[in-house]
Amino acid sequence: MSTAPVFAGPDAAVPRHVAIIMDGNGRWAKRRLLPRAAGHRAGVEAVRRVTRAARALGIEALTLYAFSSENWRRPAEEIGDLMGLLRLFIRSDLAEFQRENVRLRILGDYRRFPTDVVTLIDDALARTAANTGPSLAIALNYGAQAELTRAARRLAERLPPEQIDEAAIEGELETRELPPLDLLIRTSGEHRLSNFLLWQAAYAELLFVDTLWPDFGADELSAAVADFGQRQRRFGGL
Length: 238
Ligand code: IPE
Ligand code: IPE
Ligand code: MG
Description:
By secondary structure, the chain is an alpha/beta fold.
């Protein structure tokens, strides 16, 4: 079944761009006396549920933090498990992205991943490049400080200092083709951004929920969107 997205207008209560720090897979597994890998597997199921729910709600762009530039500090075995799940996810869900007209995007330096994963990602990006429906952006080896540092370096090479303004910086960010970030959610009860979308979060609404990521689904996303709809955004004005 194809759910044709009806994108929200500027005043709509539905956020155009939602980003999620998907946290709590390890604790979900620990509570069940399972290995952390089982939590990550359950986390992939949550990704499927939430990406479908986001489409049904008419959210134009969903950005998911899947692997931070600091996650290399984890044991090699866990990193290997995460790479394996990423392979499975792309292989099994690419057909659905095609069917649903989803444009896949990647934020972060995914080229540091194993070569076969890089090839899979490049192929998925190419195959969905002409899709005109909602964007699914996955942050892989992403770190906002590195993103901003790279932007500064590129601009310094190209422009005199007086021409480096906010628009120029935004034009160098990896989110430059996505709508402005409206809602940033973090699961698992942690209250920090962990180097995610630091610039883009400037006027995003923040929502921290205790739910562990593998327990997050369509109902939790709907509740988050309803919460967003109640917020009064002032952007510094009255
Ligand atoms: C989030 O879950 C997934 C990734 C960071 C890849 P965690 O693995 O961080 O789970 P906790 O925080 O240990 O519970
Ligand atoms: C943030 O979660 C990164 C992702 C969800 C991919 P972490 O679990 O890595 O964050 P910290 O270490 O608790 O800040
Ligand atoms: Mg965590």
